[in-house]
Amino acid sequence: MIESVVASSATPLQMWVVLALVAGSLVLYGLERISLELTSMALIATLLLFFEFFPLLDADGDNLMGADTIMSGFANPALLTVLSLLVVGQGMVLTGGVSYIAGLITEHGGKNASIAIFVGLFVVMLMSAFLNNTPVVVIFIPIIQALAERIERSPSALMIPLSYAAILGGMTTLIGSSTNLLVSSSLIELGMPGLEFFEFTAVGGVLAITGFVYVLFIAPRLLPALASMRSKLANPDSSGKQFIAQITVGPASQMIGTRPVAGFFKNLPNITIQMIVRREHAELPPFESDMEIQAGDVLVVAATRKALTEALQKDPGLLHADAAGVSGDNDGTPQKSTQLLAEVMLPPGSRLIGFNLEQIGFRYQYKCLVLGIQRRSRMIRTQMTEIRLEAGDVLLVQGRSEDVEALRTIRDVVLLEWSTRTLPRPFHARRAATIFLGVIALAATGVVPIMVSSFIGAGLMIASGALNLRQASRAIDRKIVLLVAAALALGNALQLTGGAEFVADQLLMVTRGAPAPVILSIFFLIVAGFTNVLSNNACAVLFTPIGIGMAQQLGVEPHVFAIAVVMAANCSFASPVGYQTNLLVMGPGHYRFVDFLKAGTPLIILLWIAFSLFAPWYYEIPF
Description:
Number of strands: 9
Transmembrane segments: 13-31, 38-57, 77-103, 115-144, 164-188, 200-223, 435-468, 480-498, 518-548, 560-579, 599-619
Protein name: Potassium transporter TrkA
CATH topology of the domain at 240-322 and 336-418: Alpha-Beta Plaits
Keywords: Membrane, Repeat, Transmembrane, Transmembrane helix, Transport
Domain RCK C-terminal: 232-317, 329-413
Largest sheet: 9 strands, antiparallel
Distance between the termini: 35 Å
CATH class of the domain at 240-322 and 336-418: Alpha Beta
Subcellular location: Membrane
């Protein structure tokens, strides 16, 4: 643990060099002309070299800013907690747990899409209090886009509100954002108790509800009604092209026993059934109301890739029925390896042209199941296995990750790189949800620290098969690792060289004579401004020691200023680089930088006013 007192041998040179590094890091992180990773590595290397030649010695002659201290950020409990929670969240996404919740909203949203949008954004805010909000926003982008189309509204009016709702939810609990965990870790580094799980939920809840009202009713009016063509080009799942697909109803399918209503099957929304083949008899639409789906029926359907994927997620036994034997399993059980969905095109000269799938033996030869065939704009009313392939046909295929990757080496097909997506693993959804809820319960009740529960949860996600080691490693963001390690090292240097105390003195000098609530309010606004040009994680670590110094000089409980850092560092609304969810919605919303400035600046001011009025009253800080 780093001592909170300034080393007696600290020199003005050391303090000013550290302050210069802080200023330089603010500029470099804000401009992003150099990658965040490279900037962080350069910052750590500079600290190592500087304090090697200009050591900061304590009374015993030991270097307080030695390599072990500077590099300790890589083993910081807060960083390990953040990475563990990313793995736990990835397990929820890959098993379809988050998608299932999103599906309930669209399924029960009724005819009033406006209410469904309200419910959707509110659920995003609630989920972001306990989950990494990045995958939550990724899942809800197509949901909100679909709801916007139902009320004939431009998706660009709702994409920024979606990001803002996720950020607001992250303000309410200790694990709602990595920022919150880093502030708590900084307190521990400074020799103080860390933040408790729900310690700032009251303050965060007031700000989140205040912000949510703005996000729902005001922000959409400030945003332009822009076309979302860019998102359609970038996202294959948003494409409206139809595939001809053939579905075999397996013995465990939820379709068994269902009957059509007005000629349509409610279990297959957005999917047009063109033919039902039962043994040797083919039934064409319109279907009689007394016709009942049976195991073994073959459904020839026309549907988009998105509709087929959703059908697979809701009814795993449906599309996996034909997959038995594809990858070596001959017992008819669903495949439990990592499955990918991808599109391949037949180039001119392919040896597959002129043959149908049965003649080719596609699933046995390439170990991938063809789910659908798309041929320009022509509608084909025949069994998919009887369609003779032509040049330019696009096949929607499903298979194990290694088998789909192997298609790159096959000259007869061209794997469309942008089309590859990992399929949800719904057979692990329940155990993933149990692990996730267990992590939350253990941390919230204080049975074990959040570091312990999250690390165990990440291990159980891998051990249970909800995700493999490769998927878990992909969930870890190297930007977070390097940025947090660099920011913690710089925060320690600020504290030990007296830089934090110096900055706190200057801020207090500027506000000399002002009551403590006013100083707290000004401090909140300063941090909120910096978090839109600097990473919110870096802001959290750099400003926490400064806030603690100010609190100690004012005689205020240090946790109050730490919570101010938590709230303000999460106010990343006025810039697309302020927070990663803002970057996620920038493409689908077709936004410019100024759009975030127009919608985010009033929200920051609103939350600043709400915090300035509520926090001093709640924490009983006298004027």
